TrEMBL record:
Boundaries of every Glycosyl hydrolase family 13 catalytic domain copy: 164-569
Keywords: Glycosidase, Hydrolase
SUPFAM superfamilies linked: (Trans)glycosidases (SSF51445), E set domains (SSF81296), Glycosyl hydrolase domain (SSF51011)
PANTHER family cross-referenced by the UniProt entry: GLYCOGEN DEBRANCHING ENZYME (PTHR43002)
Biased amino acid composition, Basic and acidic residues: 467-480
Family per similarity comment: Belongs to the glycosyl hydrolase 13 family.
Name of the protein in its database record: Glycogen operon protein
Keyword field contains Hydrolase: yes
Originating organism: Rhodovulum visakhapatnamense
Pfam family for this entry, one: Alpha-amylase
Region described as Disordered: 467-496
């Protein structure tokens, strides 16, 4: 039998978690209402519990102790005693082995069994009952890790937000069907050369990963033969999920980040600090609930129950100083130790909730805004939740950017030819100023998207009128019904050349619109090669070919067009400005920075804006009024968005020595630039872009 050092001394309360210092390990854990905290040490396999040692010291509700001789790789957990009074908010049960909230690594997923519950499943008193079974055979272990790896010359790309192009991806879904990757489905596959080649060819600057912090497979999914694919059920906020690691070593994640950095790609993490995987009062006791339920969670007036603004059963209590500290420590850890470049906050409206509802000056936002570590990374909010007053688009304080679902819906509806959509498209093209142009916020506050993990893929937007989520086992009741999609006359796959051509054109139109808009563009992994989920718009439990990107069926022509759009955006600073455009005169030349025109070249009038049958919008953009002289400048761009029939479009007069050149026409994806004088024939249902350039000598 393995012999472990078990002599414990006072240790230190300052650094929470299990900290190895080269000679031993210091353990520290917060619990305000506990009466006893026991550290459980396991053998190297994690199967056999070898020691159960009470932490000897309690300093300001932090329990702590230090054991000399323990090494990295040590498996451990906690058993915590205290009152079991669910009606008062307390659910301590020392029979349950608990994951350290600060664990840097965990051994595996929980194995579902009734012993994971703090109460007796099926008892008449339900969660008010008390379960005495040991959960250790089924619970994951926390694992001590060594200090950070040697990063060598790794440096963050530090791409300005105005130059950022985000690629939202799932680690496994992006890599597991690729034919040429080592260890598909893992972090290492993400950093392999064929994947880096694809990302470089595409031209994105940041990859935003769906949750990689260790998460739970929900019991109701496991019992249906499904799994939690997306990962929005966090168990450990500091630990990479073991399913994405080939060897279990967290250095695999660190090396992946370094490889992506080496080709100029930032790594953003989708993080879930609004709730945990423990669910409502009938959920398992895996960590926070058994450590200090009344501190970690927001409880209802009847303290037996949880506030559920997230729809996931509970809400993390970020108003408590030690819970807020945990979130902040976690964010700093992923930046300083794992070198990530930013975060997208799931259901971020929940983080700002207090007794009076959403507060943009909530403690957690204030803490993030003043933090010197977070000041150098990107912060992006998903600005809604399901609670009252939960939709908060545009309400977050700087420096947050926000996912903009109005951009998604507005662009889809314009190209679907819904009546009266031109004014809304104009707002979306200009960075959604009605939502974001306040409080000194830049146009980069809007993260523009056509699709995301939650909803149809771009191919499905043009292939399905209705969702088809039967495989989720919920009788197609789950997922959004308002998708603003258009199947072009056939529901699902089609071999009709006219239908497939129309779908390809619509996809090019929408992708071009995305990259011609002010704000920060984000595309969903797989959209660039035509991936379909066969009409499933809520693939959260589809860890299979439904959600995995189909590389064998890649649409290379659309990949090339998408890369062309990204390259065009990068080449033209007018399309990625920080200042909003409001048709203001420029000190530089007295010319306004924005013009809206009709097809005949005349300015748009009120009657035009109010015409529900108008399907065409012409916009002339210049460098924004107020742009400093040292910023990148160019002359002008005219973009035409035509959801109607073919029409003759008049272009503005070019100044002497300059010429308008047609650079992009979505109906001719392989177009080389060609000069335009006076007017040009604008194709039906297409996007065209002209650039004002210096006339070249003959």
């Amino acid at each position: 039998m393995t012999t472990l050092p078990t002599t414990i001394t006072a240790g230190c309360p300052n650094a929470l978690g299990a900290r190895y210092d080269g000679e031993g390990v210091n353990f520290a854990i917060f619990s305000e209402h506990a009466s006893r905290v026991s550290l459980c040490l396991f053998d190297e396999t994690g199967r056999t519990e070898l020691a159960n040692i009470d932490l000897p010291e309690r300093t300001h509700h932090v329990w702590h102790g230090r054991i000399d001789g323990l090494q990295p790789g040590q498996h451990y957990g906690y058993r915590i005693s205290g009152p079991y009074h669910p009606d008062q908010g307390h659910r301590f049960n020392p029979n349950k082995l608990l994951v350290d909230p600060y664990a840097r690594r965990i051994s595996r997923q929980p194995r579902w069994h009734d012993a994971l519950m703090g109460y007796e499943v099926g008892a008449a008193r339900a969660d008010l009952s008390f379960d005495t079974r040991d959960s250790a055979p089924y619970a994951p272990r926390s694992i001590v890790v060594a200090p950070a790896t040697d990063w060598g010359d790794d440096a963050p790309p530090a791409t300005p937000m105005s130059e950022t192009v985000i690629y939202e991806a799932h680690v496994k879904g992006l890599t597991c069907r690729h034919p040429r990757l080592h260890a598909p489905g893992t972090f290492r596959a993400l950093a392999s050369e064929p994947m880096l080649d694809h990302l470089r060819r595409l031209g994105i600057t940041a990859i935003e990963l769906l949750p990689v912090q260790a998460f739970l497979n929900d019991r109701f999914l496991v019992e249906k033969g499904l799994t939690n694919y997306w990962g929005y059920q966090t168990l450990a906020f500091f630990a990479p999920d073991p399913r994405y690691m080939e060897t279990g070593d967290i250095a695999e994640f660190q090396r992946t980040v370094a490889r992506l950095h080496s080709v100029g790609i930032e790594v953003l993490l989708d993080v879930v600090y609004n709730h945990t995987c423990e669910g409502n009062e009938m959920g398992p006791t895996l960590s926070f609930r058994g450590i200090d339920n009344a501190s970690y969670y927001r409880l209802a007036d009847d303290r037996r129950y949880y506030v559920n603004d997230t729809g996931c059963g509970n809400t993390l209590n970020t108003g408590h100083p030690m819970v807020l500290r945990m979130v902040m420590d976690s964010l700093r850890y992923w930046v300083e130790t794992m070198h990530v470049d930013g975060f997208r906050f799931d259901l971020a409206a929940t983080l700002g909730r207090g007794p009076g509802g959403f507060d943009p000056n909530a403690a957690i936002f204030q803490a993030m805004r003043q933090d010197p570590v977070l000041a150098r990374v990107k912060l992006i909010a998903e600005p809604w939740d399901i609670g009252p007053g939960g939709y908060q688009l545009g309400a977050f304080p700087p420096p947050f950017s926000e996912w903009n679902d109005r951009f998604r819906d507005g662009v889809r509806r314009f190209w679907r030819r819904d009546p009266g959509r031109v004014p809304d498209l104009a707002a979306r093209l200009m960075g959604s100023a009605p939502q974001f142009d306040h409080s000194g916020r830049p146009a980069t506050s809007s993260v523009n998207l056509l699709t995301a993990h939650d909803g149809f893929t771009l191919m499905d937007v043009v292939s399905y009128n209705d969702k088809h989520n039967e495989a989720n086992g919920e009788d197609n009741r789950d997922g959004h019904s308002a998708n603003y999609s258009d199947n072009m006359g056939v529901e699902g796959p089609s071999t009709d050349p006219a239908v497939t051509a129309a779908r390809a054109q619509r996809r090019r139109n929408m992708m071009a619109t995305l990259f011609l808009s002010q704000g920060v563009p984000m595309i969903l992994a797989g959209d660039e090669i035509g991936h379909t989920q066969h009409g499933n718009n809520n693939a959260y439990c589809q860890d299979n070919a439904t959600a995995w990107v189909d590389w064998q069926g890649a649409d290379d022509a659309f990949l090339a067009f998408t890369a062309k759009c990204i390259a065009f955006r990068k080449a033209h600073p007018i399309l990625r400005q920080k200042l909003f455009l409001h048709s203001r005169e420029r000190a530089l030349d007295g010319i306004e920075d924005l013009f809206w025109r009709r097809a005949d070249g005349a300015p748009m009038c009120r009657a035009d804006w109010e015409d529900p049958e108008l399907r065409l919008l012409v916009v002339e953009l210049r460098t924004a009024s107020g742009t400093p002289p040292y910023a990148a400048l160019e002359y002008a761009i005219v973009a035409v968005f035509n959801a109607g029939e073919a029409v003759e479009v008049t272009v503005p007069d070019a100044p002497e020595g300059q010429v308008w050149s047609l650079h992009l026409d979505s109906s001719r994806p392989d177009l080389a630039p060609e000069p335009v004088e006076g007017s040009f024939q604008m194709p039906a249902e297409a996007v065209a872009v002209l650039v004002l350039e210096e006339e070249q000598p003959v």
